[in-house]
Amino acid sequence: MKVSVVLFTSDLRVHDHPPLRAALAAGDHVVPLFVRDDGIAAAGFAAPNREAFLRDCLADLDAALRARGGRLVLRSGDVADEVRAVAAQARADEVHVAAGESAYARSREERLRTALARDGRRLRVHEAVSTVVPPGAVTPSSGSGHFAVFTPYFRHWSRVRLRDPLPAPRTVRVPAGIDSAPLPPRAGVRGLSAGLPVGGEKAGRRRVSAWLRNGVMAYEDTHDDLPGDATSRLSAHLHFGTVSPTELVHRVREVGGPGAEGFVRQLCWRDFHRQVLAARPETASADYRPRRDRWRGEAPAGEEIRAWQEGRTGFPIVDAAMRQLLHEGWMHNRGRLLTASFLTKTLYVDWRVGARHFLAWLVDGDVANNQLNWQWAAGTGTDTRPNRVLNPVRQALRYDPNGAYVRRWVPELAALDGPSVHEPWKLPPEERAHYDYPDPIVDLAEGRDRFLRARDQRI
Ligand SMILES: Cc1cc2nc3c(=O)[nH]c(=O)nc-3n(C[C@H](O)[C@H](O)[C@H](O)COP(=O)(O)OP(=O)(O)OC[C@H]3O[C@@H](n4cnc5c(N)ncnc54)[C@H](O)[C@@H]3O)c2cc1C
């Protein structure tokens, strides 16, 4: 009997799963393994919304494996120790795992390789599982080995010939006698967003099908429409790997048209940030391009930070988006952009404060996408116009022209008609007094000037 272990990490699916297919091709038995890794909790990356979604994913993966005659083996502890122990118990020859991009994923790979080698076992790392194009597969002709600007990256990325998607295996045979911890139920997780979606490959594949049927065609025209809510909402599935990004790109390209092209471009942003993080792992917390900022911190900005986090800044569009985050564990991309610009530029607060708050709530919270998008918004990342400041009122009038998004999330203002909901401070005082809603915590022009002065820009 030839046995291999497949270590699942952020690739919790059976369709289009190169490590699982390779393990099945290498022998007759596999151990599908997931380790609840102490290191991730210790790094402060665990958050209730993601924990609940993860539990759904594990239950669904176990069900998919059982339908094929197998099961998921669950362990918790130090990932290298657990994998080594399972491989020894199963007398496996090799362990298959998807490549990761973060510093943590890379050091995990190294620790696994070393631990397994001690027993004469081999680690096989598979590329293009969590990304469409692996980091480093396309590089600029000169410079640092990675693309610092999106547009040329996208041009090169678009020309890469993708591997074909792999079907889910029909049967998965797991050797008897491998211990597994029980799967933890979602019900045990506290502090969840009320509107948190369900995780798992089945839910992810259903969402992809619905999106290809009804959403993607109009994406180019509707992706910025805040009240329309017309994006795919696939981000959490892509983060946990319940949807394969490679298979998704193939299927979207089959649909074709401007909506499909725009959507594929957005998926490329995901790979773009991953190749930046792979090349510069320290940018998970350090500035990609330091600008000599002297950010405002807890003192003197603590009150403003809390108002931003809780959605009571007095700017209805900012507050609506921040409340959506708390309620759903998700926020529309346009909301993420304008709330991040508001915190880092208008309030001139360190992007790490905002990134931490997002990671505490986002079900799709992802080191590469979150930290590098925050830096993009703060102007310390890859934005080619690092000092642009988004005006929240102008953003509101453009992307929520009738105010429906604000009325959905800020019920205190629901009685205000049309775009007047975006500027309650302009109401006559006697009418303003009817609304239990705060005054703006900052003067937009003063906030903008403070930021531009700090960046040494002419005002
Ligand atoms: C400050 C800030 C923080 C962010 N934090 C995260 C995060 O933690 N995790 C995360 O997945 N995305 C993050 N994003 C990117 C983007 O906002 C979300 O991916 C998107 O809103 C998810 O919704 P969707 O799946 O409906 O997106 P769609 O518009 O349907 O896009 C499809 C997919 O493309 C990818 N994508 C879209 N926009 C971006 C982008 N700007 N950068 C990278 N990938 C993108 C995502 O995987 C997304 O699921 C952040 C953006 C900003 C401005």
Automatic annotation (TrEMBL):
Q: Could you name the domain of life of the organism this protein comes from?
A: Bacteria
EC code(s) of this entry: 4.1.99.3
Cofactor note as given: Binds 1 FAD per subunit.
Per the record, a Pfam family?
A: DNA_photolyase
Q: In this protein, which residues make up the domain named Photolyase/cryptochrome alpha/beta? A: 2-131
Q: Does the keyword Cytoplasm apply?
A: no
Give the record's keywords alphabetically: Chromophore, FAD, Flavoprotein, Lyase
Q: Does the keyword Flavoprotein apply?
A: yes
Q: Which cofactor does it need?
A: FAD
- State the InterPro entries in the record: Crypto/Photolyase_FAD-like_sf, Crypto/Photolyase_N_sf, Cryptochr/Photolyase_FAD-bd, Cryptochrome/DNA_photolyase_1, DNA_photolyase_1_CS_C, DNA_photolyase_N, Rossmann-like_a/b/a_fold
An example GO BP is: response to stress
Care to name a GO molecular-function term for this sequence?
DNA binding
- Marked site, Electron transfer via tryptophanyl radical, at 295, 351, 374
UniProt family annotation = Belongs to the DNA photolyase family.
Q: This chain belongs to which protein, by name?
A: Deoxyribodipyrimidine photo-lyase
